[in-house]
Every structure is written in C-alpha cells, then in structure tokens.
Amino acid sequence: MTGQLVLAALAGIATIVILIVWVKIHPFLALMAGSGVMAIAAGVNYVDLFASFTTGVGNTISGTGLLIVLGSIIGTLMVGSGGADAIVDTILDKTPVKRLPWAMALIAFVIGIPLFFEVGVVILIPVVMFAARRAKQPAILVGIPALAGLSVLHALVPPHPGPLIAIDSLGANLGMTLGFGLIIAIPTVILSGPLLAKPMARWVPVRANEDFLGAKGAKEGAKRPNFGVSIFVILLPVLLMLARTIIEVGGWEGSAFGKAIVFVGTPLIALTITAVVAMFAFGYTIGKSRDEVNDLVGSSFGPIAGILLIVAAGGGFKETLVDSGIADVIADTLVSWDLPVLIAGWLVAVFIRLATGSATVATITASGIMAPIAAGLPATETALLVLAIGSGSVFFSHVNDAGFWLVKEYFGMTVGQTIKTWSLMETAVSVFGLAFVMVADIFI
C-alpha cells in the first residue's frame, strides 16, 4: 500500500509538470488533472474522485482567497491614487546617485508588501529605467535590487499568496511568520540585491530600456496622498497582525484590551480594516468620487482571477494529498532520511520549482507534503518551515517560468544574460533565505 501511495504522488506531480511544462496547460487545470490522477492511482473510488479536491478548493477560497482579494484592493488603490508614486519619488529625491541601488531595494521592499510580484515589476520598471538613465549606470545595477526586494517579499511575507498558502496548510501562526519573514527578508534582500548587483552590472552592462520610461499610476496633475499616509496604509495590516502576535505570546489575550487587539489582528479583519482605510486615504480624502473609488476597487479583481484559481486548485491538490494518506507516507519517508525538517521542506519546494517554474505551485505542493510533519512541530519552527518552503519556491527561475521572460523583455537581455542576472539572483534569494532561516532556528 505504501508503494502504491508513493507512486500515486509521483504520478500526480508528473502529470502537473508535463501539463504545465510541455503541454502548456494553465496551472489551474494542471493541478486539477494532477489531483484526479493522484486520486485514481491511490485507489480512490471514481465516484469520490474530486471530493477532497472540491473540499480543498472551498476551504482555500474562504481563507487564503479572501486575503488575496483584500490585498489586491489595497494595492490597486495605492497605485491608482499615486500613493506608490509618492513613496518612490520621496525616496529617490533624497538619495545620492551612488546610493540608488540601495534606494531601489528599499522602495521595492516597502511597496512590495501589499503588491503581487508581477504588479510590483510593472510599477517599478519605469522607475528603474529612469533612475539608471539619470545616474548613467547599467540598468542591472539599479534593477536587480528592485527585483530582489519584490521577490523576497513574494516568497516570505504575507499577504502574498505563497506564504498564505503555506501558513494555512501547515497551521502556522500568521503574525509570527510575518515577523520572522520581515526579519529574514532584510539581510536576504541586501545580499541578493544591492551587493550582488555590482558584479552582475559588470557581467551584463545593459543600459536603460527607453521603451519603459512611460507614465506611472496616477493621472498627471491629480492630487495624491503624501508619503506618510501611503507608508501608514501599507504598514497598517503588518502592525495589526504583529500586535496580535505580541499579545498572544505575552499571554495577555484574556484582558479586554487583549481581546480587542487579537480581533483586529486577525488576518481577515486586519486586511478588511486596511482596505476601508485605503478607500479613504487613497480615494475620498484626495477628492475621488464614490464611483471612482468603486471603479478602482472593481479593477482589482480581474488581475487576480488567475491567481485565485491556481491557489484554489492548489488547495484541492493539497487536500487530496492529505486525505488519500499520500502526504503521511511521503512525510514518513522524509523523516526516515533523517533530514532536518527545514531543509527537507526547502528541497521539496526546490524540486517542484525547477520542474514547473511556478513558485506558487512549488509552495502548494511542498506545503501539502510537509503538513503531517508540521503537525508535531512547535509554533516557532512551523513558522520557519513556511519560510524555508517559501525560500525554496523561488530557486533558479529559468525558461519554464513566466517571470524569467518578463524580466528578459523588460531589460532587453538575451537568454544567457537573463540567466546570469535574474536566475542567479533568484537562486541567491533562495539560498540566503534558507541560510537565515537555519540561523533563526538556532537562536529562537
């Protein structure tokens, strides 16, 4: 029976890889097909073929999916109001030319908290090209720090889809994971961004791509929120969720004040509060009408439809793994290899990432496989396991990753140049991320 379940897992994962990489099927359909193949191979009655899958889809949408939607609303309001521009312009105006790589890493780190990776890239590319042209420096010197900031946030920090999926699958504490993620993200961005960008700029000295020096989010001349307001809105959900964790760790959740903080620090409530605050700060208070704000909110749903479907299907795939007993068998196998649990989670995510090119699919699959092991871990190590899996999910982006081609085209590089810069940077993010997770595990 154990052998059958292992083969079922391999068949399901192989189906996903083949459909995504060679057949070029959308990951949603690939995950659904992989779940079906895995269930059949595991001996599930065909009548119940997708019972676990649909349960997982529903649970994921009701939990992680709602958080992704709220995060998209906040990010869209920030961009559409010019709040992102206010942050970028304020930091750039106060930055000497020689510090531009560090400034770009800081900008990406800040605005990357509420924005999905692809959205952050689209926003920052004109800024990167403008800064590189102004400083008369290679675009890579300024661009890699920005990409590193976005990638690290995407892999390690909620409310990005990957960390949220892993937190839900492994039963980790969101506030604790968020706190550890931010701490680990800072040195990871520094090493894989501004410091690594210097030799890369010598290897690939491409200049600013003039095609991407266009306008940014808000209309020219429109009133926009100031820097302080924009930063406050971005950091509000982070502060609320961290406050809840502090209350819980301190054992103060029984008091009236503690109960209130725990409530507002619940991820769904924290992001809902922030979305309402964003509607005022990025809308009504700068003169936008109710219809304009509603239009911005409505426009935030379309771009995340594909992400929601992939995440939901991933939840279904994970549920199939768990309900069929496959996850338990794989977990037992990993335990028998006597690998440290954090390294095991990282390696599983790396394998799926290299095979499929998708960080989200890598996180979903690795989290489902590691879930039985996580059940017996202390809260701190479960949070670090989330971060280890997140680090593994971005390892060596190459030609099967849409992000690879996005960066290649924006910077006007060849495939070889993109591997020397973007792919190497992603690998550095993954390895440094794991290294700092392991260091944190020693001291926490």
UniProtKB/TrEMBL annotation:
Gene Ontology cellular component terms for the protein in this record: plasma membrane
Keywords, in A-Z order: Cell membrane, Membrane, Transmembrane, Transmembrane helix, Transport
Mode of membrane association: Multi-pass membrane protein
Subcellular location(s) of the protein: Cell membrane
Residue intervals passing through the bilayer: 5-23, 29-51, 63-82, 102-132, 139-157, 177-197, 227-247, 259-284, 296-314, 334-352, 419-443
Keyword Membrane carried by entry: yes
GO terms assigned for molecular function: gluconate transmembrane transporter activity
Main location group: membrane
Pfam families with a match to the protein in the record: GntP_permease
Domain of life: Bacteria
Recorded family membership: Belongs to the GntP permease family.
Entry protein name: Gluconate transporter
Organism taxonomic ancestry: Bacteria, Bacillati, Actinomycetota, Actinomycetes, Actinomycetales
